[in-house]
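queue> pop job 88
queue> type: inverse folding (structure -> sequence)
queue> payload:
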């Protein structure tokens, strides 16, 4: 008995040593934690339960049968994160570069299946040289099985990917299929084809970081939602994100007893909008003023900055916020902003997170680049997802809401359950200057002083339609409120809508305009 126990302890120690001291030292020198260090930092102390530690590859191609790969290059298991069950895998770059083969993939698939059975979030720490070339199609099939599970789990359990090293070729698609992607600056990268291939095909010379680094994907492509300074920060942010999310689609988001008061009125909101409606301000100041303790978590904060997406709490209840940002592109909707909002709205709807939309939008961004890039198709996705969402939907119009963009920011006709407006709200088909040119063109041209006549007609149009009361009279706005009352009004609406049930016609799925 003693010998067997000692044998087990020795074997466990060997397997948990990964690629050995030299490989671990090299990992640290490159600015990265090891796979086991990442899991130790992620899970509550003493709660991680490893699965499939003894799994080994079974390939004999190209001398691989003479190569031992501890735990086959990936650590899998489950544990507690802030007291809640989470499943995870962490690829071990110190063990044969964390390359993925048949059994490596099988371990990941098994823990993903376990997460679905447990109805627990799934987190993947990716640090891999990609498919294990010696295993050929078995490695490719391994990726296929992971992708299939990503699809099955989508909308059932939250899926989070932390790219903490290389992810190239087919390896990039699993993180792209998950709900949120984290990357680490200067140590992680994602691309379909690397710099060497790019150079050979296009003659373009580019570095890993420029082609697929954390800043590239958080500012240019939108592939990653969080670009972090190091592994430790990334893990801390993942834990913070999980604090806003339910464990699965059958639960509501975790409630936190608020330290903030429900009826707190922020009088600064009464003067936050500039007198000139063409002047900018920071929408994040509005959000801070109304959410609990002024705190919110903002995915994709560096991409499509004309649109804000954020998770926050109001009276302890988690909400998803979608808001135009007037300080960037005047808050116009464009291709990237539409995609950013669409994905966030669909995630919130899948996981029972109520939506608060804050609109200050002058329209869709004009130009051939947008039209040729498919703004019609991308904008239609935004309309689609708002109409499709069945969670409570509250819309607040604080300034501009013009034309189709008014509709796209969750108008009442598109499915908003409760619509509010500040007294400064301008709800119209288009801006007053353009409207005057169209409606009163003949009168302006015939006037003795066309410039003065135009100004008079602009004022007439503003006084007639440029206020929220016209929409309120028609029932399109449920309440016009003082800005300082915003927090209390929204909390009251959220409380009233907390048991909302949405019904949709039976169908396999809709055909979203992709």
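queue> result:
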């Amino acid at each position: 008995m003693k010998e067997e126990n000692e044998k087990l302890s020795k074997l466990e120690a060997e397997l948990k040593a990964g690629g050995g001291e030299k490989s671990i030292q090299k990992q640290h020198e490159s600015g990265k934690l090891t796979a086991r260090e990442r899991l130790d930092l992620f899970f509550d102390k003493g709660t991680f339960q490893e699965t499939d530690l003894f799994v080994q590859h079974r390939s004999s191609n190209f001398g691989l049968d003479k190569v031992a790969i501890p735990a086959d290059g990936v650590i899998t298991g489950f544990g507690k994160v802030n007291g809640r069950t989470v499943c995870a895998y962490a690829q071990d770059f110190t063990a044969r570069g964390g390359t993925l083969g048949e059994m490596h993939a099988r371990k990941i698939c098994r823990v993903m299946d376990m997460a679905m059975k447990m109805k627990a979030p799934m987190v993947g720490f990716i640090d891999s040289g990609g498919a294990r070339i010696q295993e050929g199609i078995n490695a490719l099939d391994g990726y296929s099985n992971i992708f299939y599970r990503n699809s099955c789990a989508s909308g059932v359990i939250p899926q989070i990917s932390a790219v903490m090293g290389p992810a190239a070729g087919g390896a990039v698609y699993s993180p792209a299929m998950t709900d949120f992607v984290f990357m680490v600056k200067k140590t992680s990268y994602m691309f379909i084809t690397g710099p060497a291939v790019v150079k050979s095909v296009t003659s373009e010379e580019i570095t890993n970081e420029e082609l697929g680094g954390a800043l590239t994907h958080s500012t240019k492509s939108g592939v990653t939602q969080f670009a972090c300074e190091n592994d430790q920060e990334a893990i801390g942010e993942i834990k913070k994100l999980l604090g806003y999310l339910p464990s699965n689609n059958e639960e509501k988001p975790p409630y936190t007893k608020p330290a903030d008061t429900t009826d707190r009125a922020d009088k600064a909101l009464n003067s936050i909008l500039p007198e000139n409606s063409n002047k900018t301000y920071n929408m994040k100041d509005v959000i801070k003023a109304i959410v609990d303790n002024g705190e919110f978590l903002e995915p994709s904060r560096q991409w499509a900055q004309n649109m804000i997406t954020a998770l926050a709490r109001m009276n302890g209840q988690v909400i998803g916020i979608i808001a135009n940002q007037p300080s960037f592109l005047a808050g116009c909707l464009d291709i990237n902003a539409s995609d950013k909002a669409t994905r966030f709205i669909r995630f919130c709807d899948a996981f029972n997170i109520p939506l608060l939309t804050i609109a200050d939008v002058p329209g869709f961004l004009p130009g051939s680049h947008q039209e040729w890039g498919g703004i019609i198709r991308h904008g239609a996705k935004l309309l689609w997802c708002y109409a499709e969402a069945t969670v409570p939907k509250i819309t607040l119009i604080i300034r501009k809401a013009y034309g189709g963009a008014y509709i796209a920011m969750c108008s009442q006709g598109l499915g908003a359950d409760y619509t509010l407006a500040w007294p400064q709200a301008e709800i119209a088909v288009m801006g007053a200057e353009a409207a005057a040119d169209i409606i009163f063109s003949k009168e302006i041209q015939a006037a003795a002083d066309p410039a003065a006549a135009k100004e008079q007609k602009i004022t007439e149009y503003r006084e007639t339609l440029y206020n929220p009361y016209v929409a309120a009279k028609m029932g399109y706005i449920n309440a016009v409120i003082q800005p300082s009352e915003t927090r209390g009004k929204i909390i009251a609406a959220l409380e009233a809508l907390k048991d909302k049930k949405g019904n949709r016609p039976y169908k396999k799925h809709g055909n979203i305009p992709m």
